[in-house]
Amino acid sequence: MENVVPGALQRLRAADIIRMAGLAAASVGQEYCRTGVVHSTQRQGARLSGVVEVLHPAVPAEGTDSRRYPVEVAIRSASAWDSVCPCGQNALALCAH
Description:
The protein is of the alpha+beta class. It is built from 3 helices and 4 strands; from the N terminus they run αααββββ. Strands 1-2-3-4 form a 4-stranded antiparallel sheet. The radius of gyration is 15 Å and the shape is globular. The two termini are 29 Å apart.
């Protein structure tokens, strides 16, 4: 039964994600997926988790700084979710991670 995708995930559309996260965050999140910085993804029921590892510019002489964001999102419906990300930006909307 663990392989059965819950109805909330079956009905989730790109437009729902844009509505929940906002266009800017959804676009950045899509780019993260496209460029391969999202890994260790898992699904347990309607709970999705993964790690987003993003390179940020550091002090010019030091190159770049990599930051890891372990993320969890539980989709309850097309308009309701619970999310956890250490970036702190996901209090009212989904963050880009």
